[in-house]
Design a protein that fits this description.
With about 130 residues, the protein is of the alpha/beta class. The protein is built from four helices and four strands; from the N terminus they run E-H-E-H-E-H-E-H.
Length: about 130
């Protein structure tokens, strides 16, 4: 588990932007409790564009799914299409389960990443949860 906490050499860390206005962020886990609350905060500001990686997006329209999650958590707000985009993906897969073109587009346009996606199960072993987490 400790070895997994070391980032590979090809991951380059930069200082987090202090002002996200007119920035583009990648948000994973938007349909969970933490992700939905973070999405609501990001939408309350001006200018930030949010790219949401949504698992199983093909089964249910992601915008409808996220709007329902916000309502379920007592959060209000619209998800304007000019500020929120959705990508059907899977964090446990190479390139986040995205096509090469979609992955390249996200890589070239993302200023910050908010990684809230996780699989939580107190009865599962670390090995069972490792790939997705």
């Amino acid at each position: 588990m400790f070895a997994d906490s070391v980032l590979p050499d090809e991951v380059k860390l930069a200082a987090a932007p202090t002002n996200l206005e007119n920035r583009s962020v990648l948000l994973t886990g938007a349909t969970g409790f933490l992700g939905a609350h973070l999405l609501a905060v990001l939408m309350s500001g001006d200018g930030v564009r949010v790219n949401c990686l949504v698992r199983n997006a093909e089964k249910r329209e992601p915008r409808v799914r996220l709007q329902q999650m916000l309502a379920d958590f007592g959060l209000t707000g619209d998800l304007p299409s000019e500020r929120v985009r959705f990508f059907a993906g899977d964090i446990s897969q190479p390139r986040l389960g995205l096509s090469e073109a979609a992955h390249d587009e996200l890589c070239s346009s993302t200023d910050a990443i908010y990684h809230c996606a996780a699989s939580v199960n107190w009865t599962s072993s670390y090995e069972a949860l490792r790939k997705v987490n």
